[in-house]
């Protein structure tokens, strides 16, 4: 049994595969595989361990219907046509939970970096423009007691809310498809309509999955309803915000700042004006990039491969086949 792995992954996952007697091929080049290359590689393997946003669409799945399992080293599976996989009886696995803390840390980091213009100041020093102490310039805002609004309050959003409560005593409001009673009891979260989430949040952080319902949800009309002093944080998926509209909202001071770990499109162009704005902090999709999260993700992805190749139900499965 052989697995194709689309990137170099942490040793925790590889060791599990070796111990299970599974061979693997890693794509070790620092470039994306084209859809044709991915299909060609999978033809000679029994399973796929996919890292990054490879399109696991119906065309791919039909061309590779021999695959016994497709295991994503990611929590989000918006890049997969799950109904097509289910119809072809291909189990899809993901890695929920282990990256919640790391991703929440990233959102927290972006909130504070945005509020204090930290990334911009770092750049200014690098240009030799330290300047002198001016009491009225480079002012940020304090997060203490501000309202945190979360769209998609699940594991990651709850981890963020706990940090925000501990650090800054921030009350929590949220909007979800379904009420999160655990969060209401544990964290005093208050459920609000999407409109009220826009209107009442001082920091609005996205932790929903990318679906037709959330795609493009943050456009000019949405930003227009947010507070002028608010900060928009996206560590979920770039496709949930319209980046031109976000830039316009920042330029017109419709909102105060933005922190992005995901951009639309990815990668962000190096000349994007957002990169030069004081109230903006951007990271290159590193939400889960910690030793702890990535080794946990590699382990779970390998466990899904091992189960799938044995024809067993995946321990962390997305679909029922
Ligand atoms: C990363 O974006 C993930 O979905 O795990
Ligand atoms: C600032 O550095 C101060 O001393 O107030």
From TrEMBL:
Residues 109-287 form the D-isomer specific 2-hydroxyacid dehydrogenase NAD-binding domain. It comes from the Bacteria. GO terms for molecular function: glyoxylate reductase (NADPH) activity; hydroxypyruvate reductase [NAD(P)H] activity; NAD binding. Residues 4-319 form the D-isomer specific 2-hydroxyacid dehydrogenase catalytic domain. It catalyses: (R)-glycerate + NAD(+) = 3-hydroxypyruvate + NADH + H(+); glycolate + NADP(+) = glyoxylate + NADPH + H(+); (R)-glycerate + NADP(+) = 3-hydroxypyruvate + NADPH + H(+). GO terms for cellular component: cytosol. Its EC number is 1.1.1.79, 1.1.1.81. The keyword NAD applies. Keywords: NAD, Oxidoreductase. PANTHER family: 2-HYDROXYACID DEHYDROGENASE YGL185C-RELATED (PTHR10996:SF178), 2-HYDROXYACID DEHYDROGENASE-RELATED (PTHR10996). Belongs to the D-isomer specific 2-hydroxyacid dehydrogenase family. GhrB subfamily. This is Glyoxylate/hydroxypyruvate reductase B. It comes from Chitinophaga barathri.
